[in-house]
What does this fold into?
Amino acid sequence: MLKIEDVNTFYGNIQALKGISIEINEGEVITLIGANGAGKTTTLMSICGIVPPRSGNITFLGSSLLDKEPDEIVAMGISQVPEGRRIFPYLTVQENLDMGAFLRKDQEGIARDREYIYELFPILAERRNQAGGTLSGGEQQMLAISRAIMARPKLLLLDEPSLGLAPLIVLQIFDIIKKINTENKTTIFLVEQNANLALKTAHRGYVMENGAITLADSCENLLENEAVRKAYLGM
It folds into this structure.
């Protein structure tokens, strides 16, 4: 579904991604783990066209993304849940959800998906007329994920969904991530610092260090890998 081939991405003269290659197949949950500053978020920004690669190629369903604007990439079926949530704080929960469906014209489908969101996250149904900025951190993360789902993506990009959340809320969020994958058949690319939880959620994983992919394997194998256990699992 998504193929990243030898991608090099820069911020000015600083190289953030160094020839990375990643493949994501339809229906998979793939995780990218690594320390702060490793280049994980830049990888997502390169996919979305926000920080275009200087060289290499990124293809989605056989079409190159390098000549596409971010809104065109969303229209192709890729939605991102950014780090730090970045909901619209002065819009209500329902208005935030409607913004996620901005490019869609199927009003009946939008209404069905909105009700599906309220089934996934009953607290959002209770707070549908409440301003997004007044929600708790966990509720805002639920809203950010829900807003992305409203675009009905084929590929969902999640950037640090556990960041700053209480452990119980994190477990709830990750249960929903699994549910979105299995029920909606949505392919998911999960960038996450909580390596233990990410590797227990995904099918395959990539390890990134200093802008380069250093390991790629099944999550089962990565959980048993001594270097991964020492560097990321505290074992």
